[in-house]
Amino acid sequence: MFGYRSAAPKVRLTTDRLVVRLVHERDAWRLADYYAANRDFLKPWEPVRDESHCYPSGWQARLGLITDMHRQGSAFYFALLDADETEVRGVANFSNVLRGSFHACFLGYSLGEKWQGQGLMHEALQSAIRYMQRQQRIHRIMANYMPHNQRSGNLLARLGFEKEGYAKDYLLIDGRWQDHVLTALTMKAWAAER
Ligand SMILES: CC(C)(COP(=O)(O)OP(=O)(O)OC[C@H]1O[C@@H](n2cnc3c(N)ncnc32)[C@H](O)[C@@H]1OP(=O)(O)O)[C@@H](O)C(=O)NCCC(=O)NCCS
User: Fold this and answer.
1) Is pLDDT of 106 > 50?
2) CA of 121 to the centre of ligand 1 (A)
3) Is residue 51 a part of any domain in this protein?
4) Gap between the Cα atoms of 98 and 73, Å rounded
5) What CATH number is given to the structural domain containing 41?
6) Which has the closest alpha carbon to 181: 150, 160, 159, 158?
Protein backbone atom coordinates (compact mmCIF):
# COMPACT_ATOMS: atom_id res chain seq x y z
CA MET A 1 0.00 0.00 0.00
CA PHE A 2 2.74 2.49 0.92
CA GLY A 3 6.18 2.74 -0.58
CA TYR A 4 7.73 3.55 -3.93
CA ARG A 5 6.06 1.93 -6.95
CA SER A 6 7.65 1.75 -10.37
CA ALA A 7 4.49 3.09 -12.01
CA ALA A 8 2.12 5.75 -10.74
CA PRO A 9 -1.31 4.34 -9.82
CA LYS A 10 -4.01 4.96 -12.43
CA VAL A 11 -7.18 5.98 -10.65
CA ARG A 12 -10.26 6.96 -12.66
CA LEU A 13 -13.55 7.40 -10.86
CA THR A 14 -16.82 8.27 -12.56
CA THR A 15 -19.76 10.14 -11.06
CA ASP A 16 -23.08 11.19 -12.64
CA ARG A 17 -21.56 14.28 -14.27
CA LEU A 18 -17.79 13.96 -13.97
CA VAL A 19 -14.68 11.91 -14.46
CA VAL A 20 -12.55 12.27 -11.34
CA ARG A 21 -9.08 10.92 -11.98
CA LEU A 22 -5.50 11.31 -10.86
CA VAL A 23 -3.64 13.83 -13.02
CA HIS A 24 -0.92 12.49 -15.27
CA GLU A 25 1.86 13.94 -17.37
CA ARG A 26 -0.39 14.51 -20.41
CA ASP A 27 -2.63 16.92 -18.44
CA ALA A 28 -0.23 19.88 -18.68
CA TRP A 29 -2.29 21.92 -21.16
CA ARG A 30 -5.62 21.09 -19.50
CA LEU A 31 -4.39 22.28 -16.11
CA ALA A 32 -2.76 25.38 -17.61
CA ASP A 33 -6.09 26.23 -19.30
CA TYR A 34 -7.94 25.77 -15.99
CA TYR A 35 -5.61 28.04 -13.99
CA ALA A 36 -5.44 30.66 -16.78
CA ALA A 37 -9.24 30.81 -17.16
CA ASN A 38 -9.84 31.01 -13.39
CA ARG A 39 -6.87 33.10 -12.38
CA ASP A 40 -8.81 36.14 -11.12
CA PHE A 41 -11.62 34.07 -9.65
CA LEU A 42 -9.33 31.86 -7.56
CA LYS A 43 -6.95 34.63 -6.43
CA PRO A 44 -8.72 35.51 -3.12
CA TRP A 45 -8.89 31.85 -2.07
CA GLU A 46 -5.46 30.46 -2.90
CA PRO A 47 -1.75 31.01 -2.33
CA VAL A 48 -0.16 33.40 -4.82
CA ARG A 49 0.38 31.34 -7.97
CA ASP A 50 3.28 32.18 -10.24
CA GLU A 51 2.80 32.59 -14.00
CA SER A 52 3.96 29.02 -14.66
CA HIS A 53 0.53 27.75 -13.52
CA CYS A 54 -0.97 29.27 -16.66
CA TYR A 55 1.42 27.59 -19.12
CA PRO A 56 1.74 23.93 -20.14
CA SER A 57 5.54 24.14 -19.77
CA GLY A 58 5.13 25.07 -16.09
CA TRP A 59 2.81 22.14 -15.56
CA GLN A 60 5.10 19.68 -17.30
CA ALA A 61 7.72 20.25 -14.61
CA ARG A 62 5.16 20.19 -11.79
CA LEU A 63 3.45 17.05 -13.08
CA GLY A 64 6.78 15.21 -12.95
CA LEU A 65 6.96 15.92 -9.22
CA ILE A 66 3.28 15.08 -8.69
CA THR A 67 3.68 11.75 -10.51
CA ASP A 68 6.57 10.94 -8.18
CA MET A 69 4.34 11.68 -5.19
CA HIS A 70 1.64 9.42 -6.68
CA ARG A 71 4.23 6.64 -6.97
CA GLN A 72 5.28 7.14 -3.36
CA GLY A 73 1.70 7.34 -2.11
CA SER A 74 2.48 10.66 -0.43
CA ALA A 75 -0.12 12.72 -2.33
CA PHE A 76 -3.08 12.20 -4.66
CA TYR A 77 -3.91 15.02 -7.08
CA PHE A 78 -7.29 14.59 -8.77
CA ALA A 79 -8.69 16.52 -11.73
CA LEU A 80 -12.46 16.89 -12.18
CA LEU A 81 -13.20 16.53 -15.89
CA ASP A 82 -16.12 16.37 -18.30
CA ALA A 83 -17.04 12.91 -19.62
CA ASP A 84 -14.71 13.30 -22.64
CA GLU A 85 -11.85 14.35 -20.34
CA THR A 86 -11.05 17.42 -22.42
CA GLU A 87 -11.74 20.15 -19.87
CA VAL A 88 -10.62 20.43 -16.26
CA ARG A 89 -13.57 21.77 -14.27
CA GLY A 90 -11.87 21.65 -10.92
CA VAL A 91 -9.17 20.01 -8.83
CA ALA A 92 -9.10 18.11 -5.53
CA ASN A 93 -5.77 17.35 -3.91
CA PHE A 94 -5.07 15.03 -0.99
CA SER A 95 -1.59 15.99 0.19
CA ASN A 96 0.91 15.27 2.97
CA VAL A 97 -0.29 11.69 3.33
CA LEU A 98 1.16 10.20 6.51
CA ARG A 99 0.67 6.59 7.57
CA GLY A 100 1.98 4.85 10.70
CA SER A 101 -0.25 5.64 13.63
CA PHE A 102 -1.75 8.68 11.84
CA HIS A 103 -3.14 7.55 8.44
CA ALA A 104 -4.06 11.15 7.65
CA CYS A 105 -3.83 13.77 4.93
CA PHE A 106 -4.93 17.28 4.00
CA LEU A 107 -7.55 18.08 1.39
CA GLY A 108 -7.60 21.16 -0.86
CA TYR A 109 -9.88 21.89 -3.81
CA SER A 110 -11.18 24.43 -6.28
CA LEU A 111 -13.85 24.56 -8.93
CA GLY A 112 -13.87 26.72 -12.07
CA GLU A 113 -15.95 29.89 -11.91
CA LYS A 114 -18.52 28.71 -14.45
CA TRP A 115 -19.12 25.47 -12.54
CA GLN A 116 -19.96 26.99 -9.15
CA GLY A 117 -23.22 26.26 -7.37
CA GLN A 118 -24.20 23.05 -9.18
CA GLY A 119 -23.14 20.50 -6.61
CA LEU A 120 -20.17 19.35 -8.70
CA MET A 121 -17.51 19.57 -6.00
CA HIS A 122 -19.71 17.70 -3.56
CA GLU A 123 -20.30 14.99 -6.17
CA ALA A 124 -16.58 14.70 -6.95
CA LEU A 125 -15.43 14.72 -3.33
CA GLN A 126 -17.88 12.05 -2.26
CA SER A 127 -16.24 9.75 -4.75
CA ALA A 128 -12.61 10.81 -4.16
CA ILE A 129 -13.00 10.63 -0.37
CA ARG A 130 -14.43 7.13 -0.65
CA TYR A 131 -11.33 6.15 -2.67
CA MET A 132 -8.97 7.67 -0.09
CA GLN A 133 -10.76 5.95 2.78
CA ARG A 134 -11.31 2.54 1.24
CA GLN A 135 -8.38 2.07 -1.13
CA GLN A 136 -5.75 4.21 0.58
CA ARG A 137 -7.08 3.42 4.04
CA ILE A 138 -6.89 7.00 5.26
CA HIS A 139 -8.48 7.46 8.67
CA ARG A 140 -8.41 11.27 8.96
CA ILE A 141 -8.87 13.83 6.20
CA MET A 142 -8.23 17.41 7.31
CA ALA A 143 -9.60 20.42 5.44
CA ASN A 144 -9.41 24.02 6.58
CA TYR A 145 -11.16 27.15 5.33
CA MET A 146 -11.14 30.89 5.92
CA PRO A 147 -14.15 31.93 8.05
CA HIS A 148 -15.54 34.10 5.24
CA ASN A 149 -15.35 31.24 2.71
CA GLN A 150 -18.92 30.21 3.31
CA ARG A 151 -19.16 28.04 0.16
CA SER A 152 -16.23 25.96 1.33
CA GLY A 153 -17.56 25.70 4.89
CA ASN A 154 -20.99 24.60 3.61
CA LEU A 155 -19.43 22.01 1.31
CA LEU A 156 -17.34 20.49 4.12
CA ALA A 157 -20.29 20.41 6.51
CA ARG A 158 -22.43 18.62 3.91
CA LEU A 159 -19.66 16.05 3.47
CA GLY A 160 -19.62 15.35 7.20
CA PHE A 161 -16.45 17.22 8.18
CA GLU A 162 -16.55 18.38 11.79
CA LYS A 163 -15.11 21.60 13.17
CA GLU A 164 -12.11 20.96 15.42
CA GLY A 165 -10.66 24.37 16.01
CA TYR A 166 -9.64 27.77 14.82
CA ALA A 167 -6.09 28.68 13.84
CA LYS A 168 -4.96 32.29 13.66
CA ASP A 169 -2.68 33.38 10.80
CA TYR A 170 -2.71 29.80 9.57
CA LEU A 171 -2.06 29.93 5.80
CA LEU A 172 -0.56 32.44 3.39
CA ILE A 173 -3.52 33.07 1.08
CA ASP A 174 -3.47 35.76 -1.59
CA GLY A 175 -0.30 37.11 0.02
CA ARG A 176 -1.69 37.48 3.57
CA TRP A 177 -1.60 35.19 6.62
CA GLN A 178 -5.24 34.28 7.11
CA ASP A 179 -7.14 32.67 9.99
CA HIS A 180 -8.72 29.29 9.22
CA VAL A 181 -11.46 27.09 10.65
CA LEU A 182 -9.99 23.59 11.10
CA THR A 183 -12.18 20.63 10.20
CA ALA A 184 -11.70 16.90 9.76
CA LEU A 185 -13.53 13.82 8.57
CA THR A 186 -12.63 10.56 10.26
CA MET A 187 -13.55 7.12 9.05
CA LYS A 188 -15.46 5.46 11.85
CA ALA A 189 -15.23 1.99 10.28
CA TRP A 190 -11.44 2.10 9.75
CA ALA A 191 -9.89 -1.31 10.22
CA ALA A 192 -6.27 -2.36 10.45
CA GLU A 193 -4.80 -4.03 7.35
CA ARG A 194 -6.43 -7.31 6.56
C1 LIG B 1 -15.43 25.95 -2.38
C2 LIG B 1 -16.04 25.57 -3.72
C3 LIG B 1 -15.34 24.36 -4.31
C4 LIG B 1 -17.54 25.23 -3.47
O5 LIG B 1 -18.20 25.08 -4.72
P6 LIG B 1 -19.78 24.77 -4.77
O7 LIG B 1 -20.17 24.69 -6.18
O8 LIG B 1 -20.47 25.73 -3.88
O9 LIG B 1 -19.83 23.38 -4.06
P10 LIG B 1 -20.86 22.18 -4.15
O11 LIG B 1 -20.41 21.22 -5.16
O12 LIG B 1 -21.01 21.70 -2.75
O13 LIG B 1 -22.22 22.83 -4.64
C14 LIG B 1 -23.13 23.34 -3.72
C15 LIG B 1 -23.99 24.35 -4.36
O16 LIG B 1 -24.59 23.80 -5.54
C17 LIG B 1 -26.04 23.87 -5.45
N18 LIG B 1 -26.54 22.72 -6.19
C19 LIG B 1 -27.17 22.82 -7.40
N20 LIG B 1 -27.44 21.60 -7.88
C21 LIG B 1 -27.00 20.71 -6.96
C22 LIG B 1 -27.02 19.31 -6.90
N23 LIG B 1 -27.50 18.57 -7.89
N24 LIG B 1 -26.46 18.71 -5.82
C25 LIG B 1 -25.95 19.44 -4.82
N26 LIG B 1 -25.90 20.80 -4.82
C27 LIG B 1 -26.43 21.42 -5.89
C28 LIG B 1 -26.29 23.90 -3.96
O29 LIG B 1 -27.54 24.47 -3.68
C30 LIG B 1 -25.14 24.79 -3.51
O31 LIG B 1 -25.38 26.13 -3.88
P32 LIG B 1 -25.59 27.27 -2.77
O33 LIG B 1 -24.33 27.24 -1.91
O34 LIG B 1 -25.73 28.50 -3.59
O35 LIG B 1 -26.78 26.83 -2.02
C36 LIG B 1 -15.97 26.73 -4.72
O37 LIG B 1 -16.71 27.83 -4.25
C38 LIG B 1 -14.56 27.21 -5.06
O39 LIG B 1 -13.91 26.64 -5.92
N40 LIG B 1 -14.11 28.30 -4.42
C41 LIG B 1 -12.80 28.86 -4.71
C42 LIG B 1 -11.67 27.99 -4.21
C43 LIG B 1 -11.82 27.64 -2.75
O44 LIG B 1 -12.41 28.37 -1.98
N45 LIG B 1 -11.27 26.50 -2.37
C46 LIG B 1 -11.37 25.99 -1.02
C47 LIG B 1 -10.40 26.62 -0.12
S48 LIG B 1 -10.69 26.06 1.55
Assistant:
1) yes
2) 6
3) yes
4) 9
5) 3.40.630.30
6) 150
